[in-house]
Fold this sequence. Notes:
By secondary structure, the protein is mainly alpha-helical. The chain contains 11 helices and no strands. Helix content is 79%, strand content 0%. The two termini are 36 Å apart.
Amino acid sequence: MRRFSWFNATSLTLGFAFLYLPMVLLVIYSFNESRLVTVWAGFSTKWYGELLRNELFLDAAWVTFKVAVISSTIATVLGTMAAYVLVRAGRFSGRTLFSGMIYAPLVMPEVITGLSLLLLFIGIGLDRGVLTIVLAHTTFSMCFVSVVVSSRLVSFDRSLEEAALDLGCTPWQAFRLVTLPIIAPAVISGWLLAFTLSLDDLVIASFTAGPSATTLPMRIWSSVRLGVSPEINALSTLLIGIVTIGVISASLISKRNMLRQQRDEQDAARAAA
Length: 273
């Protein structure tokens, strides 16, 4: 077995330090007593209280969460339908154009996407607000869902659907009772990916949001331009904590399912023996 050399250890340490040291400093200074984020004046949690009393951040967080849930749900439905057509419909007239339109937002710069959507909303006379942000986020996140779901449908065993059809199911029943439960992990992954992209988006939301709707990334960006405040550090720390809890929970659930599957396989092997 190849030994873990000093070069590998140094490279790994520097890489992790580059990625996570700024986050660690951000978390530490979120408990700073002083308003100056670069001057340590003692331990305090008052900025978390100030954050909870900041109506601008709370309203922006609610708009962001609402937009992310709605847009990711719509994008998951449309992306799953698009993936099903691409994989199962075979060759049809306009397939190349259809697939190109589905995958174009993957490589399209966000500035171009945001500007084109802004011109569209202005052209049709649609006032910018929560609705326009939802439509914009659905547009650019649907392609990511389509890629994830189509990769699962490509490897799907179609004989299972054929067996359901032979047993009297309609095509819709076969999809709902057989196909959808099997590809559900890919559908859920697509929803989570679309949800994350919506939460993180700044550029497209800046073009499509109006005065009545401001997302949390937009609020943070506008606040940081005037100088980093301890409230921003507190908010970022809360977001890091939520993400960390989610990742650890997902890892524990995955490990538990893997152990359960191994136990089931061992029990089946003992029963067969």
